[in-house]
Design a protein that fits this description.
Layout: H1 13-33, H2 38-49, H3 61-80, H4 84-89, H5 91-115, H6 121-132, H7 139-145, H8 151-180, H9 185-216, H10 220-240, H11 245-256, H12 265-288, H13 298-326, H14 330-340, H15 345-356, H16 362-398, H17 402-406, E1 409-415, H18 419-431, E2 438-447, H19 452-471, E3 476-482, H20 486-497, E4 501-505, H21 519-527, E5 531-536, E6 546-550, H22 561-575, E7 578-583, H23 588-598, E8 603-608, E9 626-631, H24 647-654, E10 659-664, E11 683-686, H25 691-719
């Protein structure tokens, strides 16, 4: 392989970076008009400007570093964007596909290498490991079409991890036999033990470290740097124990999945940086490694044809068999095949190691480069051809009542009193945002003073809200209003903008005689029947472990019942946590019906309550990292009871240090029809066989709470 010019035309760092940015900018613009996946353009551009093309740029250490970072970033995004709920549902099918996409290429690779290429069994086993491994180079295609939660994509991702781990274990065993002259079972068992210990250590450390860091650091830039540090630490430790860094990056994405909601500004930053810089850099670096001149050699071309046929057939067969077993359609088969067809970094690492050990010759090495070139070009084309069909079928299956969902209108008003509470309120609104219909958001600051300080406070509050929405790629219209008082200003805006729900920050008590909610909130609740949400969170929402919801009796008869259930379901889906409904038995099937009909795919549990004031009994169950949601009721409404008048007192006494979200549903008017459903994925977590035993249990808990309150009062008296 002789180069036409050994000295690259461009060597200055500024010029190199400019050329790369021009490729990243114009390649998608050009190929979108030609209906060609821009991934292919990035790879082809790398071939053209690389040392085996016109030698414009050298494949130096900068491309090696950024290319490796881009590959790790790609695998990290694949793990981060996985819907864990649907992943668990498809885990068994994914494991089956993983075994197929590991065993079939391994067997076909060994047999064809021995019979057609006249290689030894040990060398054939090494090539089989190369066929079995693949890279999710087509993942940006499915992400662009929004089908990352499709069963075919989730199955392919699980299968990728199984195939890569299996290929690396086969590689380790083959190299061990080559170096030691015999198979060392102990070395393989040690590697497996290291893998298990590494997984357990990261499972224990990462969630705790991430939750603690996010609680103490709210700055998005700091959180982004922390996330990247965790990713590369996992990749580095995976490399230390003898595995590929891509496994560490993917595993870090799975572990951090829970703390980076899809609609959050942090996720927006991660996707933006990766898709704009790191992943395109990786694709260009892949192209720069490819030497197209190997085609001129007839012998190499023959071997490459055999290897290419094995590589394609051995990855198509597992997709075909898995789709027939799981009864998936042809578009799912095409997406699975497209995601698993590309051979890049792992394949090149396998053959390079074999070449350095003297197991493979130059002919096999050059043929592998050609296999990488063809499969990297073929995989995005197949994925892009089948992704739209799968998208249409998913929408058709999901949107049985799509007309109702698309015409559903939400207008959310976020009242921001100061810049400090603007960001958490906007984050709550964004996480509860309805992405299946029209949803407009407004940030409002009402002032009754025309002084310069009041105007500065208004501008700072609205600017903080606007920036928080922009960071999450959500447009928030800011409203500045001068009115008689805050409540009048909010009510006027609600009428002008047809607001469907209002989000407020929790009132801070100014003195002993001050009420829990404050006079402004209480007056607002008396003046409107729209849904009002009052929030108080001591920790960021993405660190919440559970959502515990107390639902009053007859709440299912209120007009806004389905609206608040949908809002909490969207919040739970974004946070990826569990939601526990503490409610009467009559409301449970209706809550399940709303969640099932909307296909939110969340983990919901139910705790049956027997009395109106059972929310007090949840004081010992609601933890510091939980979000306690109370569904309130206005006086004279269907679900209102006399015990609710004492709710603010109990909240102040027993939940003073808990994260609270108090929801007053829309009331009066005409509500939508409700459907009952028994969800097999949900469970009743507190179902004793006899109502008498439940009442005795509740009496015992009330006595325990009374004893605890008495002890606290005695201890305070002694201190005084």
């Amino acid at each position: 392989m002789v180069l036409l010019n050994t000295t690259p035309l461009v060597t200055q760092p500024v010029q190199i970076f400019f050329i790369v940015l021009v490729i990243i900018l114009f390649t998608p613009l050009l190929l979108n008009k030609l209906k060609i996946p821009h991934i292919i353009g990035m790879i082809v551009a790398g071939v053209v400007i690389g040392p085996y093309g016109f030698n414009v740029l050298d494949n130096d250490s900068s491309f090696a570093i950024f290319g490796q970072v881009g590959l790790l970033y790609l695998m990290f995004l694949a793990g981060l964007e996985i819907d864990m709920y649907h992943l668990r549902l498809n885990m068994r099918r994914g494991l089956l596909f993983g075994v197929l996409t590991l065993v079939i290429p391994l067997v076909l690779g060994v047999l064809t290498s021995v019979w057609l290429l006249d290689l030894g069994w040990l060398t054939s086993l090494l090539l089989g490991a190369m066929y079995a491994s693949h890279t999710l180079i087509s993942y940006p295609v499915v992400a662009r079409f929004g089908i990352t939660k499709a069963p075919a994509v989730l199955i392919a991702i699980v299968g990728t991890i199984i195939a890569v781990i299996g290929a690396l274990l086969v590689l380790a065993a083959t190299v061990n036999v080559r170096r030691e002259g015999a198979f060392d079972m102990l070395a393989l068992l040690i590697l497996i033990a290291k893998l298990a210990a590494w997984c357990v250590a990261l499972l224990y450390i990462y969630p705790r470290a991430t939750r603690r860091f996010f609680k103490s650091h709210n700055d998005k830039v700091t959180q982004y740097v922390f996330v990247l540090a965790m990713v590369f630490f996992a990749a580095w430790t995976a490399q230390l124990i003898g595995l590929e860094p891509v496994l560490g990056a993917f595993f870090a994405g799975l572990l951090l999945n829970r703390y980076v909601p899809p609609a959050s500004s942090l996720m927006g930053s991660i996707e933006f940086v990766g898709n704009a810089l790191f992943i395109p850099y990786f694709l260009i670096s892949v192209g720069m490694m490819i030497n197209v001149r190997v085609i001129a050699n007839v012998d190499t071309l023959t071997v490459a044809g055999i290897m290419l046929a094995v590589a394609i057939v051995s990855k198509w067969l597992p997709a075909f068999i898995a789709c027939r077993i799981n009864r998936l359609d042809s578009s799912s088969e095409g997406v699975m095949f497209g995601l698993t067809a590309a051979h890049t970094a792992v394949a090149l690492a396998v053959v390079s190691l074999g070449y350095n050990l003297g197991m493979l010759d130059t002919r096999i090495l050059n043929s592998t480069v050609l296999v990488i070139l063809v499969t990297c070009a073929l995989a995005p084309i197949i994925t892009a051809a089948n992704a739209p069909k799968l998208k249409v079928k998913l929408l058709a299956a999901e949107e049985e009542d799509g007309v109702i969902r698309q015409t559903r209108v939400n207008n959310t008003l976020i009242t921001v009193a100061n810049p400090a509470n603007a960001v958490p309120l906007v984050d709550l609104a964004v996480l509860m945002r309805n992405d299946r219909g029209r949803h407009s958001m407004f940030a409002l600051h009402v002032r009754d003073d025309n002084t310069k300080s009041a105007k500065n406070l208004t501008h700072a509050s609205l600017e903080a809200a606007r920036k928080a929405g922009a960071a999450a790629d959500v447009q928030i219209e800011t409203l500045e209003r001068f009115d008689l008082n805050t409540v009048t200003g909010v009510l006027n805006v609600m009428e002008e903008r047809d607001i469907t729900e209002v989000i407020l920050g929790m009132h801070r008590r100014a003195g002993v005689i001050d009420s829990f909610f404050g006079n402004k909130v209480e007056k607002l609740l008396r003046s409107t029947n729209k849904m009002v949400l009052i929030s108080r969170c001591f920790i960021p929402l993405n660190t919440v472990t559970r959502i515990v919801v107390w639902v009053p009796y007859r709440a299912q008869y209120e007009t806004g019942f389905s609206r608040w259930v949908r809002g909490l379901a969207r919040l739970t889906r974004q946070l990826g946590c569990r939601i526990i409904f503490s409610c009467c038995a009559d409301a449970q099937p209706l809550i399940r019906g709303v969640i099932y009909r909307e296909n939110y795919g969340i983990r919901c549990e139910f705790n049956t309550l027997d009395s109106d004031d059972d929310y007090v009994l949840l004081a010992n169950k609601v933890l510091d990292d939980d979000l306690f949601v109370i569904i309130g009721a206005r006086p004279n409404s269907v679900s209102y009871t006399s015990s609710m008048s004492e709710m603010p007192t109990f909240l102040q006494r027993y939940f003073a240090h808990n994260n609270l979200l108090i929801v007053y549903p829309e009331q009066f008017g005409e509500g939508p029809a409700l459907t009952s459903f028994v969800d097999p994925m949900s469970s009743d977590i507190a179902a004793l066989p006899s109502p008498l035993w439940r009442r005795l249990r509740n009496v015992w808990r009330r006595l325990a709470l009374a004893r605890r309150s008495l002890r606290n009062a005695i201890s305070k008296t002694r201190k005084n």
